[in-house]
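Tutorial, part two.
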Amino acid sequence: MKKVVIVGRPNVGKSSLFNTILGKRIAIVDDKPGITRDRNYAVAQYEDKYFYLIDTGGIIPDNEDDFSKSIFEQVDFALSEADVIIFITDVKEGNNPFDKDIANILRNRDIPIVVAVNKADNEERALESADFHSLGFKDVYPISCLHRRGINDLLDKVVSYLPTTKLQIEDKLSIAIVGKPNVGKSSYINKILKEERLIVSDIPGTTRDSIDTAIKYKNRTIYLIDTAGIKHKSKFKEHIDYYMYLRTVNSVERANIVILMIDASLELTTQDKRIFNIIEKLGKPLIIVLNKTDLIPPDMRNKVRKYFQNKLHFASYVPIVMISAIEGRGIYKVLDMVLKIEYNLKKLDNEAMRNILIDINNHVPFGLKFKKPVKLLSISQSKRNLNHFTLRFNKKFEIKDFQLRYIEKRIRKEFSFEGIPLIFHT
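Running the prediction step on this input gives:
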């Protein structure tokens, strides 16, 4: 699939254009430079054309700041993948010297470049966009992301450079990687990809957006969603942190399987447990990954595993995988577990379910206060959410926790549901 890359200096509206084209808020939008630090990928459709839309961090040429330099390298990599470039500028600020520097960089690329002059919110501003022809590109379009002015004209030109592409549809397997800031989520993805796909530093909160990256593993396409680290709500000093928290929760909601990454070199924290609770409440299959085992002596690693197993005894169904993202140890065991969980999350055999039903009725007393015995008539598996089950009884009554625990235990005994929470409805 062809790639369309959005570039420009900070705070001209790259993420706003990205979201406007997609029709949903994927990149965090704020008025602070550098909010989009990494490349952000999504599949976009316009008319009969499908393409990857790539949002990038703001280019600041010749800036020696570490983050700015890292962003510039990310943009340079994105440009090397691009089939069409949308060069976005700001009509309110006019021809900025940085725009000219970026134009000089882009001219060296032998690919179509379409200039989008943003914030042309009215006709007067739209006319002023003609000044941007001086950047040396023939395709210049006034737009307003805020009011959606000129977006269709811009996209008409962009897709004119793209061939018609049929979207290959398969069952999507999305993995959200969540955890506190600085536990190694981006380092893990970088090691898997063997490229600097995400900007990584030792500053907590480096990854601000949730970013989808597609990989191929054992003939299966897996979408990795690297999320901003979840902070405690009381630590939301900036509203951007609250956006990140909401985006992370959103990423968990749209994921098929969630990886909760924990720093194995530290004790389990209250925040780790809070993140677990978010995942559990959303009923998502889960793998706990203990990262940074390179900081633990080899003869202590089993002891560390047992420590976390004891601390997480309430989640005995969840597999624990120990890795070192820095050393690359165990990183593919996580993907193997992902594929195992996906395989296990399937429609259950009807005959086996009938046998389970008989066994439950023989061993679990329901509704003892009733004169006639309460019987479990059926256990129905949801067709859409395969870890959801509806229990139907011959009488209405309030089921007890110990009864639900037996039903869950009996189903898990028959079928492999490792890492998968079972949700019951009555």
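The chain has a mean pLDDT of 81. In part three we will examine how such features are distributed along the chain.
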